[in-house]
Design brief:
There is one protein chain. The chain has a 5-stranded parallel beta sheet, with helices on both faces. By secondary structure, it is α/β, with parallel strands linked by helices. The N and C termini lie far apart (about 50 Å). The chain has a single domain, classed as Rossmann fold (3-Layer(aba) Sandwich), CATH 3.40.50. Helix content is about 45%, strand content about 20%.
Length: about 170
């Protein structure tokens, strides 16, 4: 069984993430969505909410494809998470050249830690290349329309979250 790991903070999950998940499902038998606990990023949504949003969005993908998706929170090194879930492939989405520089460094470090785990880069769909969770949150915080970037349930979660913040 080929197991892939698609890691990220998913704060929140966007249509760009969903695009990569759907396409990655064609490459692996089981896709583990690694929801990172990254205290340096100060996420808008707590881990439990991010996991729930990813699970809800993946349920629709599973219903369509019949594939296997597992949502797995993690706080350790990415390469250790990949080992923990039995992944032989790490899936990473790329939007722009700036992403590539960072990802290139990460691949080098991960290969030094475990050369048996491959990294596969997937370019975001052209319609989704500009989507970044950080920008989606900024638009939502300022009352803008994020419906082109996230699903309706995620849009509602953003509105609810920002309505409760000072």
């Amino acid at each position: 069984m080929r197991i892939g790991l698609y890691p990220g903070t998913f704060d929140p999950i966007t249509l760009g993430h969903i695009d990569i998940i759907q396409r990655a499902m064609q490459l692996v038998d089981r896709l583990v969505i690694g929801v990172a606990i990254n205290r340096d990023k100060s996420p808008l949504f707590p881990l439990e909410d991010r996991v729930a949003m990813v699970e809800a969005e993946c349920a629709a993908i599973i219903a369509k494809t019949g594939g296997e998706i597992v949502v797995h929170p993690f706080e350790n090194l990415l390469i250790d998470c990949a080992r923990d879930v039995g992944a032989t492939v790490i899936v990473r989405g790329l939007r722009a050249v700036a992403d590539f520089e960072y990802e290139f460094q990460m691949v080098g470090m991960n290969r030094a830690l475990d050369s048996s785990i491959e990294t596969v880069f997937m370019m975001a769909d052209a319609r989704r290349q500009a989507i970044a969770s950080k920008l989606v949150k900024e638009i939502a915080r300022l009352g803008g329309d994020v419906s082109k970037f996230v699903t309706p349930p995620v849009e509602a979660a953003l509105k609810t979250r920002y309505s409760k913040l000072p």
